[in-house]
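Budget justification, computational time. The allocation requested in the original proposal was used primarily to generate structure tokens for proteins on the priority list. As evidence of use, we reproduce two of the resulting records. The first is shown immediately below.
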Amino acid sequence: MVVGVPREIKNNENRVSLVPAGARALVEEGHTVLVERGAGLGSGIADERFTETGASLASVDDVYSKADLIVKVKEPQPSEYARFRPGQILFTYLHLAPLPELTQALMKSGVTAIAYETMSDAGGSLPLLTPMSEVAGRMSVMVGAFYLQKTLGGRGILLSGVPGVPPADVVIIGGGVVGTNAAKVALGMGARVVIVEASPKRMQYLDDIFGGQVVTLASNRTHIAEALKRTDLCVGAVLVAGARAPHLVTREMIKQMKPGSVIVDVAVDQGGCVETTRPTTHTDPVYEVDGVVHYCVANMPAAVPRTSTFALTNATLPHVLGLARHGFRDAVKASDMLRNGVNVYKGHVVYRAVADDQGLAFRDLHDLLS
């Protein structure tokens, strides 16, 4: 199989979808690897590191026109839509629920689109989303602490406080991977932490692992509203796999927050769990609504690409090898996780949450493969 690795073109997207070790593994199995020139530079990986493994450097036109399998990091940008062709496999983060234009483009192209973020295992966890959720969760508190500075529009609060001055209050909406990692950093920085979570079992788990250092609240409108009135930093960490995130933080709640408090909505990739969320970029990361600073960058881990690239490819490479080794049909028949990742196939939406969110017809992948 010919595997293509294009350079990411989303704003300040510095990650790359394959590292030299992965390229070597593919080449050793007899596959051809085409890497767009400069694809790894943002992650500190020179072109020569790829050619040393037997991969070939290519233009963006050759990568897309010759590859059977395109491996990316982020969802295709509008200028990339026309590059796909029927039967080509696209393997990347897609986050289609809030992106109907991209869904339509993928359906029209005839590409087979597999999303990292919907590849779930037998236990319901999302192994390919987890490493970037860990990065984004940890970054969220660091970013929030930065924007709490008065010179950047924040309240002028040091997250840890100092002796004689209390620390900041951090509210985390959602106690999954993002929320847990956000709590680790917030506690490590000395903040007072509240996690709002819907699952009683998860709340018990969080109480156990944090040894009672965090306060857990059952997720409902009243608890969220009351917690936000007191908070200095709110981290949105809600995930419904493949679906648009629910707006748990409303505009009315934001109006009751302290002036200069900060919201970091990590759920922005799936539309955001805050009503006033809109995607921003690393170039222009924040805006203000009702005196509250909003940070809603849709590719947060791209700011730490060296860490993020290697963490991501550790998780994705086995599946890239499986697709290259067996081809799409046999690979998805052999792997439930890979099959769960397929969102678009032969012009049809085959992931129900995306179809439901966008009002599209859903087709079962098993039926189409049969």
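The second record produced under the same allocation is shown here.
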Amino acid sequence: MSQHFVQKGKPPQGISSFTKIRLGWIKKQQVQFVKPGETSFALLSPLSKGGDLLVVKIPVDEYSHFLIENRQPIGFDKMLPDSGILILEVHPAYQDGTGVVKVKNPINSPNFDHATYKLEESNRNVFTDKQNNISIIPLWKEKEKLGVLVTTPDRSNVAVNAASAIQKLIDQSNSENENVISEAIVAFKNRDFEKSYDIAVGKRGR
């Protein structure tokens, strides 16, 4: 997402949340701050479209932080090599050209075509930084917004299982399971991942 062109003759993709914050295009109230070790849920609007909440910021220490954004192929991001939850590791004190911003892609790819995290892909459904007690999990969509959970590594497995169970219910959505989906999501947002999983799986098992 820092390459200039995805396809020859097509426009480049939009700029990252890091650059937009520096330019003043993203305001403080559009950023949700989460400390390492905390568990927090967020619904991010597509970065290129704008909205009430665009970025989750995790300050690691005085020298570095993570930025989490929702990149979707709309607006200035119409030409993206990949879409989903993008995680950036930022070292503001570094000199330009020495790795100020690094994409924490789940799968190494020179073209950033596997740069984002996606709930439905088992090898891309969680980012973990054990040293700083951080796990980041992409979640389901609610309309055009995409959910993301920041939690701790010890809670990541149960959270991923619950989120995946909810996603399966959403994929099978009908009038009969709308209430179950709502109940499972409420439990998830209340950080009761075990209860959320039981609700979602219980419905599918009937």
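A brief technical remark on that second record: Residues 3 and 111 are 7 Å apart (CA to CA).
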